[in-house]
Amino acid sequence: MEFQRYETVTACTACGSEQLVIINSRAAIHECTHCKCRIVSPRPTQASITLSYNVGTVYEQWLKDDEKRTDLWKRRLAIIRTITNKGTILDVGAGIGTFLHLAKQEGYIANGTETSETATHIAQKLYGLSLACGQLADIHYTDASFDIVTMWHVLEHVPMPSQIIKECFRILKPGGHLVIAVPNDLELKGIIGECIGRSRYKPITFCDEIHLTYFTTKSLNTALIKSGFNVIQNGLDDYSPVKNIKRRVKYFMSYFIELLTGVNIYDTLFAIGKKGNENLP
Fold first, then answer.
1. What is the number of other CB atoms lying within 10 angstroms of the CB of residue 54?
2. In the Cβ-directed half-sphere of 24, how many Cα atoms lie within 13 Å?
3. Backbone φ and ψ of 167, nearest 5°
4. Which of 6, 63, 212, 249 has its CA 20 to 30 A from that of 44?
């Protein structure tokens, strides 16, 4: 199958700037000259993307790997515990719900959204979780509903990251936190590959994971600040579900480089934004 409909993006989906330059015509990648975020345009419409996820095998593969991913979700839950050990969590793009299941076991009040009907059915069957199906903005949560909102490798998939971040600001309680993890567009392997003529970007294909936006720490922080958040922490998202020496060496090498230089060359990054009482988007 193929995507049936496409749309053109004329402004940066992270900061709103209309200063876009094309940097990879084969993969339709444009860069924002203001925040350095990179976006796909033209791109499939959301209806086409939703169909791709529902008929594809992305979540079935996640189900096969679920046991291996448990340590990954526990590492991410440990980040949440550094913020607070109680409260109401909303996980946006909760997938099959493993993170929320573990959070619920730790005593958090767990809520989640997911655009894939396939994933929501799996979450209900495996964990008894009733995820809200649809885009966050279409679910219409009330103001100041949650203590924590998480997005684990979700923001790169949504059509308008800036709108999602603003919606998160609205539904968070004063003093609440937004935790976001995304792939890092400045990861070392991709940069080295481009230096030797190998593009890090591939055209979007049906029934595969679909990235619409490519973030750096700078562009993600810019989007958070623009929506009213104070950025209180940046770091590396220790995302790998597989434990082996090569992966651990890569992570810890990148961790110490980031610690010493402030530059993240790892595959992934995370940011934590805090909503203050005085913040207004």
1. 15
2. 18
3. -65, -40
4. 63
Alpha carbon distance 216, 229 (integer Å) = 17
Task: From residue 164, give the alpha-carbon distance in Å to each of 49, 156, 201, 275.
Answer: 17, 11, 24, 15
pLDDT of res. 44? 84
DSSP H or E stretch at residue 8: none
229 versus 135: the higher-pLDDT residue is 229
The structure tokens listed for 266 are 């790892």
Give the pLDDT confidence of 37-50 residue by residue, as tens digits.
999 999 988 777 77
Domains in the chain with CATH codes? 6-274 (3.40.50.150)
| H/E element, 244 | none
Question: What confidence tens digit (pLDDT) does each residue in 199-242 have?
Answer: 788 888 876 778 999 999 999 999 999 999 999 999 999 987 76
